[in-house]
Amino acid sequence: MSHSFRDAPLALLDGRAFIDGERRWAAQQQRFDDVSPLDGKLLCEVARCDSLDIDLAVNAARRAFDDQRWRGLPPAKRKQVLIAFAEQILAHREELAWLETVDMGKPIRYARSVDVNSTANCIRWYGEAIDKVYGEIAPTSAQALALITREPLGVVGVIVPWNYPMIMAAWKIAPALATGNSVVLKPSEKSPLSALRLAELALAAGVPPGVFNVVPGFGPEAGTPLALHMDVDGIGFTGSTRVGKQIHVMAGQSNLKRAWTELGGKSPNIVFADCPDLEQAVQSSVASIFFNQGESCNAPSRLLVENSIKPAFIQRALELLPSYAPAHPLDEATVMGALVDRTQMDTVLGYIARGQQEGARLLAGGERVMQDSGGYFVQATLFDGVHNDMAIAREEIFGPVLSVMGFDSAAEAVHLANDNIYGLQAAVWSRDINKAHGVARALRAGTVHVNQYDEDDITVPFGGYKQSGVGRDKSLHAFDKYTELKTTWIRIDSPV
To answer: Which candidate among 53, 110, 195, 428 keeps its CA 20 to 30 Å from the CA of 215?
Structure first.
């Protein structure tokens, strides 16, 4: 098949910001190049927004909030609009999947079936949920009526990463919009195009101008002014732990805005000798780490296997690796695509070199491939002989690199798993329910999978312990991030 995508409609490659219901270039007319990871060539120019544009977007969001064009609507009406927004996303499935693929590098089969569907489902779910959230009446004395109600924060800033541009945006904008907030979204400069298109689809669905704004740009120039802005009431961030810490500092330095961060991970995947299905465990472990080219914060990049089955486990994993060979992301058969840009590719290759330097055994992969394409493709990589003091075991690589460690007891497995600054996800494979439950309870992670990895649903919260962040995305718990609780205390002098 032909993989040329340079003849696509130019209208899809629109890098202008979306502020107050309109597409516009940056106030100072600055632009940056958006390069496709598929071939290393220019996709389009994107508005390089800065503090002036953040001011414009925040001011538009504040006007929309203050005049109640959105928050003043009954929840049932906001529900209708958000459901229409979800339907717009599904109606434009092919163009959104194409944008996600050529801008970020993921296989189009997953951009279509996972990213588009998950984005639409998230927005629809929060739309459906909002008119089913009730206030409370406190159990006070008969002489008082204490009403506990939720109110929107106001203007919410959202900063999302490049690995799942639409899904990560939806996890934040859906509950924020459902509860009546106005939103200013800054997508990653590495993959901004689908977020900008989402704003247009939201407007078409009936979200009023000014309620949902998208301002592309670089972190120091656009993200920092958003986090420091005195008229932003809350900020939701997904990205690196390093930047997440800065977000919390800036929230405190400014107006003490609410700050919620979903950060890095180095998830341990623990396989005991008594796992119920060794083949399933191997296939799941390999598929989960190489999905999205390993560019997932919850990727099970640390594989802990009981030593008695470790040789057989590794041998079967090596047999599966050729099926994860990188290929052109626009080919429907491709399961692993390109890394997002040259910088990320160089970072991943640097970690692979460092793993070898520190004594880990490279059993497969580890090299850049498909160089003639000009794209940024790295082989599925497997290391054995990894120790917890190695960089490839401790640091988030964000690439297709699997590190295998052995253990001899449940206590040793738990120690190895918890000996890390992150605590996002983990998994336990064992047919012994006591062992599985006991280990799951001992693991310091926001989600622990048992006899599977990465099964998911919008109804369950997502977030982590330790330096994996603060707060939870998804589920009804996300409403806590974008609302304030108000108590209205009414004195009752009963005539009876």
So the answer is: 110
For residue 27, the model assigns a pLDDT of 98
Q: What is the DSSP string of 161-207?
A: -SSSHHHHHHHHHHHHHHTT-EEEEE--TTS-HHHHHHHHHHHHHTP
Burial label, 478 (beta-carbon count in 10 A; 0-12, 13-18, 19+): buried
- Kindly state the greatest CA–CA separation across the chain: 87
CA 239, 424, 406 angle in degrees (round to 5)?
Answer: 120
Are residues 402 and 425 in contact, defined by beta-carbon separation less than 8 angstroms? no
Helices (H), 233-332: 241-253, 278-290, 310-320
Q: Which two tokens stand for residue 50?
A: 């800065």
Angle at 238 between CA 301 and CA 383, to 5 degrees: 10
Residue 306, strand partner residues: 407
Whether the CA torsion 98, 101, 102, 103 is positive or negative: it is: positive
CA distance 432 to 489: 52
- 156 sits in the region (left: phi over 0; alpha: psi -120 to 50; else beta) called beta
The residues pairing with 24 across neighbouring beta strands, listed in sequence order, are 17
Contact 403, 422 (CB under 8 A): no
Count Cβ atoms within 10 A of the Cβ of residue 411 and give its class: 0-12 exposed, 13-18 middle, 19 or more buried: exposed
The tokens of 404 are what? Answer: 């295998």
Q: Contact at 8 Å (CB) between 68 and 133?
A: no
The residues that bridge with 17 in the sheet, in sequence order, are: 24
Q: Determine whether 274 is exposed, middle or buried from the number of CB atoms within 10 Å of its CB (0-12, 13-18, 19+).
A: middle
Alpha helices in 50-92 (DSSP H): 51-66, 75-91
Active site residue ranges: 262, 297
* Cβ 400 vs Cβ 286: under 8 Å: no
Write down the pLDDT at residue 454: 82
**Ranges of the chain whose pLDDT falls below 70:** 1-10, 495-496
Stated pTM of the model: 0.96
Residue 2 confidence (pLDDT):
43
Antiparallel, parallel or unpaired: β 465-466 and 469-470: unpaired
**Residues 433-457: pLDDT tens digits?**
999 999 999 999 999 999 999 899 9
- Residue 196: CA atoms inside 13 Å, Cβ hemisphere, count? 26
